[in-house]
Amino acid sequence: MRCDSPIKLHVFSLNCWGIRYRSLHCTERYDMIADLLAREGHDIVLLQEVWSEKDFLFLKKRLACCHPYSHYFKSGVIGSGLAVLSKHSIKDSLLFRYSLNGYPYMLHHGDWFGGKAVGLVVMNIQGWTAHVYVTHLHAEYYREQDTYLPHRVVQAWELQQFVRHTSCGADLVILGGDLNMHPQDLGTRLLRTYTGLRDCFVETDGFDGCEEGFTLIADNPFTDRKELLPFEKGIRIDYILFKGSDRVCVKCEFLSTTKGSVPGKPFPYSDHEVLNAVLLVQPGGGAVKSCVEDDDTVGLAELVNTVTEARTEVKVGLHCAQRMLHTVTRTGALGLALLLLELAIAAVPYLAPATGQPFPQASFYLLGALCFIILLGSLLLFIFHSMQVKALQGAEDQMRLAAGGLQEKLRGQPLCRDGHPPGEAAGAKAVGEDREPNSDSIS
Fold first, then answer.
1. What local confidence, expressed as pLDDT, does residue 286 receive?
2. Fewer C-beta neighbours within 10 Å, C or N terminus of the chain?
């Protein structure tokens, strides 16, 4: 039975930086996180980078009294790292794995092995249906030369699609996690504009925490300050987003973050700061709809521009992926030619018995092993880059269809003062960007 009185939901989100044998003080920090959660008793806990299921089971056992419901999302080679703990019953769950997530040969980054995804749990909160999402997008690493930007844009596109298509019947929607994007980055704008989700930091009535809501700060002893350049004080890449519905009005009453090292402890909970949000949920239609749902002319024009910008970025990434695929194909052809040459040399003693083997045996076998490695590596990379090209092409096709649908909707809107439909510039851009990106601009 639904509750007719206002409900206060305490939502917790943290990137735990839980890489066993690599993250500093991992075991001690999980103890601290468990103590914090047991002490403060949040309604919903959204965790990222819980890479070891053993660590999740440790938290689940420690918090069984205050958070009896939990779910761990399994994905990729080492797991998605996503977990949810809750006071409220979890009725259903769903995991969507992003089609692009970095490169397997970038071992020092390791994102590809993590199987980045978005997890959904459906909760019953005093009679209201809440769709709660937790996600973690690909890291940025180098902002000035961000080779992962097309992947992160596609992840943001797939995230907004997943949220829109799975949250239609929800009374309340909450999304938390490490988006690895700044508030005004392309992916963040795409996500918020398309879904109508509201940012707790922007919407909150009260705030206590790091300056400008930073969640990766220079004062955190685990943070490598070189990663923050050119942002000396910090960056905001972790979010709690929310929206209500025609039946439920939601607002953020308070938001707080930790500020580096925990008082009385030698180090902080993680290299990211904790996010704590207090959401006030009350009956009554108070949802802030997305511009697509609300026929907001200005918002639709802005969204056309955003989708067009995203589509252009994806096309640049597609151009680079196709170039890498061609390079791998040429390398494989070279390896095959060397192998055929070696086979021809190996056949010489059989065709002309009087002629000895022209190469020393050790060199002959070493060259054969090298050819085999080149061929095998080229084959694996060919398969990977072919899948990458298909994923980028698929995302670009989806964006093209979406931009066309938005433009049709805009053409049905009232004309501007100059007699042209709003968003005409966006429409012109959408037509112009069908051309291939200039390869000179690709680093």
1. 60
2. N
Pull the structure tokens for residue 433.
């960007």
Structure tokens at 277: 């949000």
Q: Which two tokens stand for residue 220?
A: 């955190």
Cα 265 to Cα 223, 254, 292, 391, distances in angstroms = 17, 25, 48, 45
Q: Rounded mean pLDDT of 260-267?
A: 88
User: Partners of 251 in the beta sheet?
Assistant: 280
Tokens of 403: 């931009």
Structure tokens at 167: 């949250």
Identify whether the C-beta of residue 242 lies closer than 8 Å to the C-beta of residue 13: no
* CB distance 111 to 74 below 8 Å: no
Give the pLDDT band (50/70/90) at residue 70. very high
Write out pLDDT tens, residues 150-164.
Answer: 999 999 999 999 999
**DSSP track, 28-59:** HHHHHHHHHHHHH--SEEEEEEE--HHHHHHH
CB 396 within 8 A of CB 157: no
pLDDT at res. 357? 59
- The dihedral through the CA atoms of 386, 387, 388, 393 has a sign that is positive
β-strand pairing of 89-97 with 117-125 = antiparallel
Read off the pLDDT of residues 107-141 as tens digits, 9 standing for 90 and up.
888 888 888 999 999 999 999 999 999 999 999 98
Chain CA centroid to CA 232, Å: 24
Angle 339-342-348 from CA coordinates, rounded to 5° = 145
Q: Judge whether residue 282 has pLDDT over 80.
A: yes
For residue 252, the SS3 value is strand
Task: State the residue for tokens 């698929």.
Answer: 394
Residue 426 has pLDDT above 60, yes or no: no
Q: Which residues contact 2 (CB under 8 A, 6 or more apart)?
A: 126, 127, 128, 283
Judge whether 109 and 141 are in contact, CB under 8 Å.
yes
Q: At what angle do helices 186-195 and 297-346 cross, to 10 degrees?
A: 130
d(CA 175, CA 235): 19
- Write down the mean pLDDT value for the chain: 89
Cβ-based neighbours of 322, under 8 Å, separated by 6 or more: 389
Non-local (6+) Cβ contacts of 250 within 8 A are 172, 242, 243, 244, 279, 280, 281, 282, 286, 287
Altogether, the residues listed in the chain come to a count of 443
DSSP 437: P
The residues that are catalytic are 272
Q: Are 175 and 239 in contact (CB under 8 A)?
A: yes
What is the rounded CA–CA span in Å between residue 433 and residue 428? 9
